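Dear support,

I submitted the protein below through the web form. The confirmation email said the job was done, but the results page showed an empty box. After a refresh the structure appeared. I'm attaching both so you can tell me whether what I see now is the final result or a partial one.
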Amino acid sequence: MNSNFDIIIVGGGAAGFFTAINIVEKNPKLKIAILERGNEVLTKVRVSGGGRCNVTHACFEPDELVKFYPRGEKELRGPFHQFCSGDTVEWFSNHGVELKIEDDGRMFPVSNSSQTIIDCFLEATRKLGITILTGQSVQSIFKKDNFWKIETQNENYLAEKLILATGSNPKIWEMLQTFGHAIVTPVPSLFTFNIKDSRIKDLPGVSAQVSIKVKETKLTSTGPLLITHWGMSGPAILKLSAWGARILNDKNYQFTIFVNWLNDVDIDEVEKILKNLKQENAKKAVSKKSPFEFPNRLWESLVLASNITEETKWADLTKIQLQNLAHQLTNSSFKVNGKSTFKEEFVTAGGIDLKEINFKTMESKLHKNLYFAGEIVNIDAVTGGFNFQNAWTSGFILANSF
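What the results page shows now:
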C-alpha cells in the first residue's frame, strides 16, 4: 500500500523541520510528511551547544558570514543575501523564541535550553498539520512516472517532490550515487588534537590566545587554545581542523604543529622583551610569574622546557637559555597523534558535489523535484552556530522556490 503526499522530507533534524514549516506556512494546502529513521526527531538539536542549542552566530553581513565555511563559501553568498543570521533571529522571534548573543558571538535561546527550539518546531508542525513519521529507515528511492517512490522497512510512500535532509548519512549518499550524483568523500571536520607532551601534561583547563601553523602546509589559525587531558582544543584548534579537514585526513592525523603562545609577537620582539625583563627583574626567579597575558602554570612549564630551573634568577639567564625561552614562547613544536570528536558535534566535510545543486532553489540539477537541505551537501562550517545557519538558509530558500 502507498501513502501519498505532495512532498516527502527525509530526515527529522534541524534542516528537515525548518524546511517543512516554511513550506507549509507559504503553501498551507500542501500535504507534507517528515520521515525520520530514529525513534526520536531533532536529536542533534537537543545535544548541540552543550544542550543549549547554538542556533546561529551574530555575524549579520552575508559577505562576512561566508568566511566561516571552509566548504560552501562561494555557493552560500547568494543564499545568505536572502536569509542571513538576522533573518534567523527574526524568524525565531516570530515563532515565540527570543535569542541572545554571548560574548563570543554565538547565539542561544534566552531560555538556555535546546528544548525551547525543539518545542517551537514540534508546536509549529502540529499547528500546520505536518505528518511526522519516526522509525522510517529509507531502504530505496526511485522515480516512478512523475512521482518519487520511497520505500522504508515497513511502508511505501509516493510524493511529487522529494527533499533530502539526512545530514551525513552514507546510505542516502550511496542511493544518490545510483542516480548519478557525485559524492565528495566525507572526512571528519571539527575535531580536537591528541597530543602527549610533558609541557602540557599537567595543564588541563589552561587556555591562551595563540596562533598555530601546521608544519609543511599553508594551514594557519588564531584564537583561544584550550589544553585538555588528551591534548589541545578550543576555537583555534577547531578552526584548523575544519579548514584542514582533507589535508589532515591525508596525513592520517599524524603531523606537527607550531604554537606561538603570544599570538602575533615574533621571536625578535620577544627576545627584546625578555632582555628588558632580565634587567628589570634581576633578583627574581624567572619561573615565578608570567610576564605575558597567559597563566603562570603555562609560563612555568615553558620556562622549564627551556632548560631553566625553577630557582634560576633573571640575572643568571644565559644567552642560550633566553633564546630557548623565546623559541618556546613563539614557536613551540608539538606532535599530533590522532584526533578526538569535539563534544557531540560530529560534523563531516563531504557530501553532494556543490556543482550539482541550483543554489537559487536547492534543487538537484540532475533530477527535477529532488531537493537538498542542510549538511547532506558538501558544506560545513567552523563551530559557533554556522552549521545550523546553513540548515536554516537552505530550508528557507527551498521553501521559497515552491
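Response: this is the final, complete result; the empty box was a page-load delay. The mean pLDDT is 95.
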